[in-house]
Specification:
Low-confidence stretches: none
Bound molecules: beta-D-glucopyranose
Number of domains: 2
Distance between the termini: 54 Å
Helix content: 25-40%
CATH architecture of the largest domain: Alpha/alpha barrel
Structural class: alpha+beta
Strand content: 15-25%
Number of helices: 18
Number of strands: 22
Shape: globular
Mean pLDDT: 96
């Protein structure tokens, strides 16, 4: 099609039923005439091993020979680095298979595919290009004649089956038996079920409505339905940015949506942290601590995988040292927070007993060792908080408050376990070496860990010495199109009161019951104008939207909300090609539900305090609290 003319090109993603459609009219540059082509493809939500493509070709102007080639291609790479070693391949008649292995971990992926058509007079021929086997299919079309080809692909990895090729082949045979319509209906039913529990309806603002549905769609296709050994990476599975690594983005930004509407998927992702706790133990030990310390960037094993050096974006011949893997330690408390939230929302005591409490206690042990006793209490020095423009800071307020919270919950949970499963406590105490002194120490740290909160003004200092740094002369940067860090340089930003993303404000949102009105207002007024909203982190805007709602400022909240809404749909940050901004997508849901709707759970019920922008006519969603489903439907009178 690089010759001839393409017209009427259109491509749609149908969020309701998870189908990508493409159609175009192609006119040959010779005398063969015009053809209408449509493509329809889906990765089945009902069967994660199955992918389906349907292609339809219609000859508009006269008889024509049509040939379609379909293959399984192993020649894919990650920024120039090939993914796969070839293991085996084969093709015969309508069937083709390909088995490849990841290059360093040698995990096998086996795929089997079959082409079927609605016409009798079709010839099939195998094509055996190395690493790219396929099928060539030919037919003769009469004028106005059309034909449809379905490509069904089944895939298994060595993580799913002992013999992935055999598993993919038997899955394929079953898919062929069921046929396209049945497979498509099963897929659509799975999507209907998802939207039924998780949709958010927003009337009066089509752009915001589309943005939230797009965000939830992206999150759903990134979550595994049944695998407890994976989580969602910062860029989901949609791009190579951050190479699939899992950050706090998942627990703090993405998970609440799943916890409230799809708890079984949230549980899977928390199980990922349980299944990788060995890596967290190794990280603590490597740093000279006891207990478990989660990696800032985590992959398959839970070991720290943050790159230490990356090419300088201004001069790629130079390298920049990345410190987050060494000292951005708050993620360990963030994971505890997500576990606690999951428990509060679902009431899943089984999980809390066998997984949640053991994780929270073992990570509390790490904190007990990591904090430094100082003359007037305890400190956590040399860290990076959520605002990554500042590194090697002492007593980051977010980190310290989350650690304090973590240790308080650890004491509470140990008591809960003692009451509900005394035999478990004995075993856990023995395994982790928890004694009465441990609990006393945790209480003491929680009470005396430094937290610079001025009772008179309500202001919380982001870290020791933050208020002494000079302010940025914002007037000088009125028409900038780059982040303050790239304009001031890494050290320049480090030496100014400028934030990459919500830090103290993030804390207010997460522990919102702990802070009074005065504190909310003082910190919002102080930190909001010092934040690099458009060019800093994509994690910021949705949280600022939520926070502005807490301050009853839906007008300001709306501006922040739309900044998050456009991160991917309008590529507002120019990096959507690296992949979907998962945290921003999850943040959108939280801004709507916790912010604009003001949802709060109480002991056995919930309340909402709506504060919608004036042009929003309706905000409606549902959630599940302790097994019971609730609908929230806010309508402007
Ligand atoms: C943000 C982090 C985030 C990471 C991955 C960074 O730019 O500052 O908070 O975890 O991106 O999304």
């Amino acid at each position: 099609m690089d010759r001839g003319r393409v017209e009427d090109y259109a491509r749609y993603i149908d969020l309701r039923s998870g189908v990508l459609r493409r159609r175009l009219r192609w006119t040959s540059d010779g005398d063969i005439g015009r053809f209408d082509l449509t493509f329809e493809r889906f990765a089945s939500l009902a069967d994660p091993h199955l992918m389906v493509v349907r292609v339809q070709v219609q000859a508009l102007d006269g008889p024509a020979s049509v040939e379609i080639q379909a293959s399984l291609n192993s020649h894919v790479d990650n920024w120039g680095h090939p993914h796969w070693d070839l293991v085996s391949q084969g093709s015969s008649h309508q069937m083709v298979s390909l088995e490849v292995a990841t290059r360093s971990t040698q995990k096998t992926l086996a795929m089997s595919a079959q082409l079927t058509t609605n016409r009798e007079d079709v010839s099939f021929e195998g094509r055996d290009d190395r690493g790219n086997p396929g099928i060539r299919l030919r037919t003769e079309l009469e004028e106005g004649g059309s034909f449809t080809v379905d490509k069904l692909v089944a895939m298994y990895t060595s993580r799913d089956a002992d013999d992935p090729l055999a598993a993919s082949q038997s899955n394929l045979l079953e898919a062929i038996r069921l046929g396209y319509e049945v497979l498509f209906n099963e897929h659509k039913d799975a999507w209907r079920e998802f939207w039924n529990r998780s949709d958010v309806i927003l009337e009066g603002d089509d752009e915001a409505q589309l943005a939230i549905r797009h965000a939830l769609f992206q999150l759903r296709i990134a979550a595994s339905s049944d695998d407890e050994r994976v989580s969602i990476g910062a860029k989901t599975l949609s791009g190579f940015g951050y190479r699939g690594h899992v950050f706090w983005d998942n627990e703090i930004f993405v998970l609440p949506f799943f916890t409230y509407t799809q708890p079984s998927l949230a549980r899977n992702m928390l199980m990922y942290r349980w299944n990788t706790i060995q890596g967290a133990r190794r990280k603590a030990a490597d740093n000279g601590y006891v207990g478990a310390q989660y990696a800032w960037e985590s992959a398959e094993s839970g070991d720290e995988v943050t790159p230490r050096w990356v090419p300088d974006w201004k001069d790629p011949t130079k390298k920049i040292r990345i410190w987050t893997g060494d000292i951005q330690i708050h993620i360990t408390a963030d994971i505890a927070y997500a576990i606690w939230q999951y428990w509060q929302v679902t009431g899943d005591d089984e999980f809390m007993r066998h997984v949640g409490t053991p994780i929270i206690l073992e990570t509390a042990i790490f904190w007990g060792d990591r904090v430094e006793p100082v003359s007037d209490g305890y400190a956590l020095s040399q860290v990076i908080g959520p605002d990554e423009y500042h590194h090697h800071v002492d007593n980051n307020a977010f980190t310290n408050a989350m650690v304090r919270w973590h240790l308080e919950k650890a004491v509470e949970l140990r008591e809960w376990l003692h009451q509900t499963a005394p035999e478990d406590v004995t075993a856990l105490d023995r395994r982790l070496g928890i004694t009465a002194e441990t609990l006393t120490k945790w209480r003491d740290i929680a009470g005396r860990l430094k937290f610079n909160h001025d009772p008179k003004t309500g202001l919380i200092e982001q870290f020791d010495g933050f208020f002494e740094l000079p302010d940025v002369e914002w007037d000088r940067y009125g028409d900038r199109t780059a982040s303050m860090q790239s304009l001031l340089g890494i050290e320049g930003a480090n030496q100014h009161q400028v934030l990459k993303q919500a830090d103290v404000i993030m804390l207010l949102c997460l522990l919102r019951d702990q802070f009074d009105d005065k504190t909310w207002r003082a910190n919002w007024d102080y930190y909001n104008p010092r934040t690099d909203h458009s060019y800093g982190s994509s994690l910021g805007p949705a949280i600022h939207a939520w926070a502005a709602c807490e301050l009853e400022r839906p007008d300001i909240a709306y501006k922040h909300f739309m900044r998050a809404a456009r991160a991917d749909l309008q590529d507002a940050r120019g990096n959507a090609g690296d992949g979907i901004h998962a945290a921003s997508a999850g943040g959108l849901w939280q801004a709507l539900v916790f912010g604009f709707a003001g949802l709060e759970l109480t002991q056995d019920s919930h309340r909402v305090s709506p504060r919608l922008p004036t042009h929003w006519k309706r905000l409606s969603f549902s959630f599940c609290h302790r097994g019971e489903r609730h609908e929230v439907d806010i309508r402007r009178a």
